[in-house]
Amino acid sequence: MPFQMDYFILNFFVFISIFLLLDFLIFFMIKQKVNWVNIIISSVVYFVILFIIFIFLIKKVTLHNFFGYISSELTVNFKNFLQGEKIKELSAEEIENLKLFFDFFIVKMILAYIFVFFLLVSFLNYYVMRLFMITKYKIINEMPKFRTWYLNEKVVWVLIFTLLLIALKNFLNNDIIYTFAINIMFVLANLYFLIGLSLTFFFMEKYKIPFWGRFFFVFIIILWSHLSFIIMLTGVLDTWFNLRKIQKGGNMI
Questions:
Q1: Helix, strand or coil, per DSSP, at residue 124
Q2: E strand segments, 3-73
């Protein structure tokens, strides 16, 4: 019991130290008037470096590969799930589809989920620290309104290259390249969905859609996955056609 408490306290202080150091770095970059996008990118890099160190420490201490261990645990839990009573009611085809879904969206996407989590936490830390700097020190780090966010045109070439790698899956016959490509695709899909949502809110504000209408639209997005794909696609199209006719450059994504 004392060992478990000491372990908990140690982990707690490590966790707090990680975020205190991150906030200090963000504080310093805001004071240096670093672009908000570069601050978030730097924060993500910070998390990635720590994560790589964590993986090497885990391997050194336990002699286990982190991703291999997580994948095996997920697989064991999924097999236990397949042995449940409710699963017996499904057809062989439905069970096979479940296996494909699990392999593609759970096992192979672990890295993408972790990266998106780092991105989200980095943005939240930046946003809170930005408000703190404005309130406490009257230092303003310019960040454009959400309705004008967009992705740099260069990002779409990463998307095209990733799609090409996925399309050449059978020709390349390399599971590592394929897994890497679908992880990149998942991250880009989330980013373009965000830009598509920004585009949607731009036109909602332009045509003065009331708050309840915007709330209802977001609710529909949650329920209808096809609409999410359409919004993501509009985010990609905005890269080429600048659908909002806004000046691109400066502080945006």
A1: helix
A2: none
